[in-house]
Amino acid sequence: KAGVTQTPRYLIKTRGQQVTLSCSPISGHRSVSWYQQTPGQGLQFLFEYFSETQRNKGNFPGRFSGRQFSNSRSEMNVSTLELGDSALYLCASSSQVGDEQFFGPGTRLTVL
Amino acid sequence: QKEVEQNSGPLSVPEGAIASLNCTYSDRGSQSFFWYRQYSGKSPELIMFIYSNGDKEDGRFTAQLNKASQYVSLLIRDSQPSDSATYLCAVIRDNFNKFYFGSGTKLNVKP
């Protein structure tokens, strides 16, 4: 069974731009979570989607948004990028909300 | 107070020794507990999960859960240099079904 895939793997943007990251969960998984990981803050929860509905949300500003499609694929968008948004963005999928999560390889975002 | 606390380390152990990694959590209602391993530059991978008090063994790994004391630990027997990584503890609070991750403990296994 194929694992979680994320695209793109690397991204360089400048301040003020916006970015869209994509995540395809493991086949059959309906829950997708997004995390931001930085050396100083560790893994921080962004949001979780299940059946196209946002089920949980972390403490991030409204510039961070996401959505999930009927095939369970998910996208997250960050608008008006700031230098502090440079991080590894990880997507994790699970069969149901509350089940063990499996991570994708991540998207490394650098904001210049 | 953080939901999940871990000592950041680094924890250094010699090859062949037992590595003991600990994690405490704040919410007594937490029901599900997970250990992830993350190599430098890679994404976290699930090692074990535990739901009930006591020990759960899987190969060289043993997870231990003590709900009364609100801690969960991971023992790695016969540690190998390839076990050198950061180990993340994660907890789900049933009310929210949301994962809370600790900041991770860096383990160094010296040959």
Structure, explained:
- With 112 residues, chain A is an all-beta fold.
- Chain A is built from no helices and eleven strands.
- In chain A, a hairpin with a 5-residue loop joins β7 (64-68) and β8.
- Chain A is globular, with a radius of gyration of 13 Å.
- The mean pLDDT of chain A is 94.
- Chain B has 111 residues and is mainly beta.
- Chain B is built from no helices and eleven strands.
- In chain B, strands 2, 4, 5, 9, 10 and 11 form a six-stranded mixed β-sheet that branches. A five-stranded antiparallel β-sheet of chain B has the order 1-3-8-7-6, with no helix packed on it.
- Classes of the chains: A mainly beta (112), B mainly beta (111).
- Chain A binds chain B through residues 33, 35, 42-43, 45, 48, 55-56, 88, 90, 97-98, 100-106, and chain B through 32, 34, 36, 42-46, 49, 88, 90, 92, 94, 96-104.
Average pLDDT taken over every residue of chain B: 93
Helicity level of chain B: under 10%
- Helix/strand-derived category of chain A reads mainly beta
- Globally, the shape of chain A reads globular
Strand content of chain B: over 45%
Which blocks of ≥5 consecutive residues of chain A have pLDDT under 50?
A: none
- Mean pLDDT value of chain A: 94
Structural class of chain B comes to mainly beta
What pair of chains forms the biggest interface? A-B, 19 and 22 residues
Terminal Cα span of chain B: 37 Å
Helix content of chain A: under 10%
Low-confidence stretches of chain B: none
Instruction: Tell me about the largest β-sheet of chain A.
Output: 7 strands, mixed
Distance between the termini of chain A: 37 Å
Total of DSSP H or I helical runs spanning 4+ residues of chain B: 0
How much is the radius of gyration of chain A in Å? 13 Å
Radius of gyration of chain B over all CA atoms, rounded: 13 Å
Give the number of helices of chain A. 0
Which H/E pattern describes the elements of chain A? Answer: EEEEEEEEEEE
